[in-house]
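Task card 7
Instruction: Convert sequence to structure tokens.
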Amino acid sequence: MNNNMKAIITALLMTATAVHASSDNSGDYALDRIEAFSKIANLVEFYHPSESVQATDWEQFSKYGAHYIQQNTSQDFASQLKYLFNEVAPHVTFNDYLTEPERLREHDKVSGWINLGYPSKLGHYSFRREVNTINYGQLHTEPFLPQQQVYYAQLNGVYVRVPMLLEANKTAKDGGAYIVPAHVNIPDTLENPFYCFSVMSKVWGVMAHFGQYFHHVPVNWGAELRPLLSVCQTQDARKIENALKYTLTKLQDNHVYLYLRDVPAARYWPDVGFEMVEGKPVLIYKGSKVDELEVGDELVAVDGQDIRTLINEKIPYSLSAANTAASDVLGNEVLLRENPTDTVTLDIVNRDNQPYSVQLVTDKLRYESYYNTIDNYTHSSQATHQVLDKHIHYLDLSKVTNEALPGLMKKLETARGIIVDLRNYPSDWFAWQNFLTSIHDGKIEGPVYKIRVSNHPDYEQRHVFNLDLSRQGTSQRLNKPMVVLSSRYSISRNEFVLAFFQNLNIPVVGEATKGINGDLTYVLYGDVPYHLAIGFTGAEVRQADGSKLIGVGVQPDILVSPTLDDIRNNHDTIKDTAKKYLETLIQ
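Output:
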């Protein structure tokens, strides 16, 4: 704990209602109750449709709620819950076994949440949450709304009843928004346990109620809240960050991103980049001022630690799916430092199998080196359009703009075969669509795209609907032998577009892709600048044939990866393999 935090805690302890956050003794915290309270608060926030719930600041409510429970442990838990929720959600009851909510009638107007994804504080063009009103007798016509009036749960020995539908002109207006007690001061820092409890409750709750992939990922998410709450007791922001990374990695979501304002960010990297090639960590990129290394050299150790041991240590905290974790750690973690003046020592084996060491300064932002590595690996610096021999044309569709497309299309009409490169992220949304519509003059199916609507707290009972992503082709002007290229860096929109090509029976040549698709959304906690930001995948997307994509990736029809010789000789083996295959189709 830093000195400023100690001073804050000392000052708070001098008041009667101070936040007792200085003890590291886990027995001092009523974690069983705080865990149950967190789950109940999420249920009420996301499913109870009263106006007071909509107007409540749930970050402040959960922070204060955890503090109140801790400070009043002599009360029984049900009494604590009644006190906390009485004003905000008076129709939510605790251990009320004798009464039931008044039965709704067919012509009653009822309100309920429609949770079409989690929009975050920034909003989202597709995901939104809103309370809708409908006649109770017509509820079955709106499957996005809750289909049962009340949700029942038993948490930490308390019988909880949360109405998910309320009479729109009566009970939905009962209660009042939560107001922070003026005499309670809880610092907004992860080193304060009650603030940390609130952060963890929000992170866990959003994933629990808006996560889309739990039927594909082997994780018991309900059990993940307790360790997240427990680590708050350490009052150590770095340990809290590691616990979050460890838990979020279990989601196997290659979109997951984590930022914590309270934790100094390691952002710097030497001007080099490595990738796994033939099972070895190999230098793919080096800056112009790095004279000691040669592309194709093998990395053996970092600061004296064996590279494979280092990678394996970091994989559980990598925020990456198992199929890409080793590559992601090598490209994003092993050389990461906090300062641009730090140094790392690399033990290397060169092409002659001779070992040597080199010390490099971490004077580049990580993303500069990372994207330079990707560019080298995927040969993205080559011309967007090329005419190869035997009248085969190459087009890097990821770089094509919609404005440039008509001119390129005219050139491609003369081709006998076309290689379409989608190894990198397509930059222009309209260009790839308009290209596709010139291949086929009928309906072109996209990937299977599902949204699991959070109309019920239980994952398996939520309504799932499919989005029709098909496009309508307009011509067959480019209906000729064609292949499309993929790489291990193809992710999200890459995989989205690849599915359209697959549904046109166009072969994919290259590597298995990252394996995650579906609109990215964010959990943002605190005020701007946000204390925490987590990105995650807000919709479930499968492969073109409906099979699992997450953690698997698009599987090429012709699987080929660069070899060590390819890397050393700057040979684009994926493109070359595609060209040879096309030649067999146009003979």
